[in-house]
Amino acid sequence: MVLFKKRIFLISISLILAAVLAFLQYQYFHKMTESDKKIQVIAAFSDIKAGEKIDSKLGVKLIPQSAYVKDMYLLSEKPTGYAKVDIAAGSYVMKSMVSKDNVPVLKEGMRRVTISVNLESSLAGKIKPGDLVDVGWAPKSDEKGENGAVIANKVEIYDIVNKSGGDIKKADKNNQYDTDSLLPAAVTLIVTPEQAIAIKEYEAKGSLFLMGY
């Protein structure tokens, strides 16, 4: 009788262990199957140059769900905007590669030059990269016989930073007292080499200011 009970006990334990093992195997293979599910993400179907609008050059790729990262666009997200960098055909379009605003591009033969600005000379700070502006010049009071002039017409703004060198659009707006981080201190422009030299020469003998359209 005792031997019979021991056998029943061992059989029960074996059945329980078998059930647990089967459950663990099911969970493992179920997760493997889930991770191998295919999802649709956005990719470039043709080359996209930096600064180009991406909307008409997008396609779809199927990838395993396990290969998905948060920086990818799902099909349902419908990205739109401009490429920050060159994106090769067939590459995944990542969120970090796209800007909603026009992206300034330094074309061949052009240069970047930076000028100091304040709230007044930068159109009350109502400017952003990609905007076109004229660069004006006002002479110092001791510059006798000098009249103000327009130094450059319709030049593109490449970047705007505050006095700490931080990007204005990325400044921390949670701190209402940190107004300095929101004020433009320097603007980088895309110009020809000749315009860059003229701008710096005029900056040394007067004040530069931006004129908007």
Automatic annotation (TrEMBL):
Residues 105-210 form the Flp pilus assembly protein RcpC/CpaB domain. It comes from the Bacteria. Pfam families: RcpC (PF16976). This is SAF domain protein. It comes from Thermoanaerobacterium thermosaccharolyticum (strain ATCC 7956 / DSM 571 / NCIMB 9385 / NCA 3814 / NCTC 13789 / WDCM 00135 / 2032).
